[in-house]
Design goal:
The chain is mainly β. Helix content is 10%, strand content 43%. The protein has three helices and twelve strands.
Length: 205
C-alpha cells in the first residue's frame, strides 16, 4: 500500500471531461437518510469554526447519518445542508464507512478529490491523505486487494464558505481508466464466506 504524491487543483470542468457518461448520470449528493444495506454509512458531525483539518471523531457525537452507494460531488456551491438532519452547510465533517467485495484480486488504484480535507482508509490503513483546508485537490493511492471482504473509510470535512467537492474513483487491475467507486459494482456473491457474519458484528457496534 502506498500513497502517490499527485495533487491536481482542478475544477468541475476537469472532472466532467474525465468521467464516463455513466458516471456523469449519478446524482450529486452526500447521501440520504434512507437506510441502505450496501454502500457508505456516513455519520455527520459539527466541527468548530476555524478548524483547519479533520477532527478527532472519537471526541465528537454524530448529529445524524446519511447513506450512499458512491461519492460523486464535483466542485459546486452548497447551501442545502442535510434535509432531515441539519441545515448546516459549513463547518461540518462526515465519516463514511462501508464494506465491499472484491472478485478480481490485484492492484486497485483510488483517487480522492475534495474541498476541503479528506482521508481514505482501506482495511484500516491510511491510503490517501488529502486533509486540511484547501480548494479542490485530488490525490491518488494504490493497494493490493485479495478476493473477499474489504473495508473502506472516507473522512471528509468542510470548512468555511459554500463550496464543496468529494469524489472517490477507482481503477481495478483490469481497468484502463478511472470510474466512480460504486458499491453496487462490488457486491458479494450469494452466501459469500464472511460477509453475513461480518455484517452482524458490525450491526451490534
Amino acid at each position: 500500500m502506498r500513497e502517490v504524491a499527485l495533487v491536481l487543483a482542478v475544477g468541475l470542468a476537469g472532472f466532467a471531461t474525465a468521467q464516463t457518461a455513466r458516471d456523469e448520470q449519478l446524482p450529486y449528493k452526500f447521501g440520504t437518510t434512507v437506510v441502505a444495506a450496501i454502500g457508505f454509512k456516513g455519520q455527520i458531525y459539527f466541527v468548530k469554526e476555524g478548524a483547519q483539518k479533520l477532527p478527532n471523531f472519537s471526541r465528537l457525537k454524530p448529529v445524524g447519518t446519511v447513506y450512499t452507494p458512491y461519492l460523486n460531488i464535483p466542485a459546486q456551491d452548497f447551501r442545502e445542508g442535510f434535509p432531515g438532519v441539519t441545515n448546516r452547510f459549513e463547518w461540518f465533517a462526515i465519516d463514511y464507512t462501508g464494506r465491499f467485495w472484491v472478485s478480481e484480486p490485484g492492484a486497485y488504484r483510488f483517487a480522492l478529490a475534495s474541498d476541503d480535507g479528506s482521508i481514505l482508509y482501506a482495511d484500516g490503513k491510511r491510503l490517501i491523505n488529502n486533509d486540511r483546508l484547501h480548494s479542490i485537490e485530488e490525490r491518488e493511492g494504490s493497494v493490493n486487494l485479495g478476493i473477499g471482504v474489504h473495508q473502506l473509510r472516507v473522512s471528509y470535512y468542510q470548512g468555511p464558505g459554500d463550496g464543496v467537492a468529494l469524489i472517490l474513483r477507482v481503477m481495478g487491475p483490469k481497468d484502463d481508466a478511472y470510474r466512480i467507486f460504486n458499491f453496487e459494482e462490488f457486491k458479494p456473491p450469494a452466501n459469500a464466506a464472511g460477509w453475513s457474519a461480518e455484517g452482524k458484528s458490525r450491526g451490534r457496534r
